[in-house]
Batch of 2 targets.
Target 1
Amino acid sequence: MNSHTVFNFELTELQNPTDIYIKRLSDLKDYYEDVPKELSAENPILYMVEKFDKNNSKGHLIVSTTTIYSGVVGNEYYFTSGHYHAEKFSEIYFCLSGTGLGLLKNKDEEEVVNFSEGTILHIDYEWAHRIINVGKTPLKFMSVYTFDGGFNYGRIIEEGGFKTKILKDNDGFSVERR
Ligand code: PAN
Ligand code: ZN
C-alpha cells in the first residue's frame, strides 16, 4: 500500500479510509423544522462520511469524503449537521459530484453559496458550515481539514441554529430566512 496516496479521481474514492460512518434522520431530527412521522419511522440514511485520518494527532491533515443522499425531510432538503471548528483552523471543501449549496454562518450573519461539481469552497475558521443537496443525485464532496481544528457542534445550537432554510420548491429550491 502506498500510504501517501489518499484519493483516486477515477473512482472518486478515498483509498483505505480509516473510519466510515453514516448519519440517519434520528441523528439529525432536531435540526429539521418538521419531521413527518412516517419518515421518522423509516429513519433514512441522510449522509455517509469516509475519513482518512492517518495520524490522528496534532499538526496533521485529515481528508474525508461526504456523500449526502438526495431527499427531503418535510420540505427541507437533506443536509449535513454543520459545525464551527473549535480552534482557529480553516478548511477546504471540493465538490466531486452533484448539485448543492453551502450555508455559512458567523454569529448572526449567514451566507448561501453554490456548491456543485467542480466547486472549491474555502471555509474560513470563523464560519460554521453546512452543505445541502438540492439535486436529484447524491452530492459528494471532499474535505481537507486539520486535526487541530476540532469540532464544535453545540455553538450553532446555542446561537439558535441556522436561520436560513433551503426548501424544495417544485423541481428546484427556495431560500427562506426565519
Ligand atoms: C467535514 C464534516 C462532514 C460531515 O468533514 O465533518 O462533511 O458534516 P458534519 O460534521 O457537519 O456532520 C468537516 O467539515 N470537517 O471539519
Ligand atoms: Zn469542518
Target 2
Amino acid sequence: MSQKKTLSFQAEVAQLLHLVTHSLYSNKEIFLRELISNASDACDKLRFEALHNNALYEDQPNLEVRVSFDRQARTLTIADNGIGLSRDEAIENLGTIAKSGTREFVSRLTGDQKADAQLIGQFGVGFYSGFIVADRIVVESRRAGLPPDEGVRWTSAGAGDFEVESIPRPQRGTSVTLHLREDAGDYLGTWKLKSIISRYSDHISLPILMRKEEWKEGEDNKGGEMVLTDEWETVNQASALWTRARKDITAEQYQELYKQISHDHEPPLAWSHNRVEGATEYTQLLYLPSRAPFDLWNREKAAGVKLYVKRVFIMDEAEALLPSYLRFVKGVVDSSDLPLNVSRELLQESRDVKAIREGCTKRVLAMIEDLAKHEKDEAASEEDKGKFAQFHAEFGAVLKEGLGEDMANRERLAKLLRFASTQSDAVSVSFADYKARMKEGQEAIYYITADTPAAAKNSPQLEVFRKKGIEVLLMTDRVDEWALNFLHEFDGTPLQSVAKGAVDLGKLLDESEKQAAEEAAETFKPVLERLKEALKDKAQDVRVTTRLVDSPACLVVTDSGMSMQLARMLKQAGQ
Ligand code: ADP
Ligand code: MG
C-alpha cells in the first residue's frame, strides 16, 4: 500500500530552493523559527477545526512542539501534534507554492544573489529554509481525523524532485527531520538550540519541549559529559506575548513577534500594545512596518491583522479590523467578546468588531502622530527623528486614501500629510507649515496636481504664483487627485487647485495690476469673442487671465469640472 512515487517540484519551488541553498548563508538559524512557526500554525489550525469537531483531538488534547536531535545520525527533528498533512496535502503544500505572495516573490528574483537575499527578507521562505542546513528533509505526517494507516512520508534532497509514500503513523501531526549538512553540526546541541528558540520563538503560545540533559561523570572520575535523558522540559515561555504585561516584554521580543507574523526581516518602525476595557474588551498589538510591501497598491491585498478570540487563533488577514487604507499595519487583535466560531461574514456585521475597528484605527493614527512629534523633538535621537520621514515616504500616499474612506478621521489624517512645494523639493511641507508661510491677503492653500514633480514645477499655471512669491503645493501621487476631492479645507482655509476656474488672486494683486487686467479684458473683448466662437466645441470659455507671466495661454477647467490630471487618469484607466 506504500505507493512510493517520485514527483517534480513546481518550477517556482525549484528556483526558490536553488536560491535558498546558494545564497542564504548569513542568517542560517532562521530555519528553526520557520519550522517552529509552521508547527505552531498547524496546532492553531487543529484548535480551530476542533471547535466544530472535538473528536479531532483524539487522545491528545495538549498541543505542543518537540525539538530533538540525534548526534550519531546527524538529524534534527521538529515534531508537532497539530492538524497534520494528508498525502494529497503534502504533495500540494510542500511541492508547490500556494501563496500568491511567494509566487510573486519568485517572479521578481533577479539572479543577483545580494538583491535576492534582500528580497527574501521581505517574504520569508518558510518550510524551504530547512534546506539551508539540511541536504535531505523527511516529513512524516498524519492528518487529524484520518485513520492511523493513512500517514505519509515526504522526502526530498531539495533539488528538482521529492518522493511520497504512504506509511502507517499512529500519532497525529507532523515531524520534520533534517539531515544536517557537513557544516551544520552546530545544531546538534541543546544549548545552541535553546538559545535560538529563546531568541526567535519565545512568544509562541505553545510549549516547545526538549529533552533534559544531565551531567554524567566519566569512569573513575575522569572527565564526564552531558547526556540526554528521557525527560522532556519546556524551553520557551509558552504564553502568547500579547497576553503578558507590557513591562514584562522586551523590545526584542516585540520585534521577534513582528518578524514572525509579518515575514518581514526588517524591524518595525513602531508598535503599540494595549488592553482595551469597557463595553468591548480586547487586546491589540499593532505594528508599523518600516517598508511598504511590493503589493501595497493592491486593494485586494491581504490585511495584516490576525484575529484571536480568547487566545484561540481564528483567522489571518482579518480585513474587518482596520480600514483598507491602513492595510499595511501588521499585528494581532485578541477579543474576549466575539464567539469562537465567528466567520468573516459575521465579522462584517458585528458591533464589537466595529468598536474594535475604530479603536485600532485610533491607535494606529496615534502611533503615526507620535512619529511625527519626534521629528521635531530636540531631545529625540537621530534615529527617532528620521522615522516619520521614512514612514511618510513608504506609506504617505496610501494614507491619503483615508481622506475619502474615513471621514471621522479626515482632519487627523490631513495633519499627517506632507508635500513638496514650489519652495521645498523635499516632500516635507505640512498644511500647517504652508499656512504659517501664507502671504498677507492670501486666502487659500494653493496646489497643483501632475504626473511628476518636474511637470508640476514647470506648469505655466504657476507663473503668477511664482511672480508673487506664493507657495504652491506640488501633488504628484496618483491618489492625490481623487483624495483631494474629499478635502476642501484645512483648519478653516480652503484648498484651491491652481488649475481650476478663475483663480482669484484678488487681494494679492495691487491696484495697477487689477486695472491692467480690466483694461486688457476690455481691449481684447472682440478677440475673445472670436476665439470663443472658433473654439466653441472645445472650450467652455475664453478669458484674459492674470495667472500667466511668460506663457501666452493655458488651459484651465471650471471649479466643478474634473481636473485635467483626473481626466487623464480616467482616460488611462480606459474610462
Ligand atoms: P506558510 O507557513 O507561510 O504557509 P511554509 O513554506 O512555511 O509557508 O509552509 C508551506 C505549507 O506547508 C503550509 O502552509 C502548510 O500547509 C504546510 N506545512 C508546513 N509545515 C507544516 C506542519 N508542521 N504541519 C502541517 N502543515 C505544514
Ligand atoms: Mg511557515
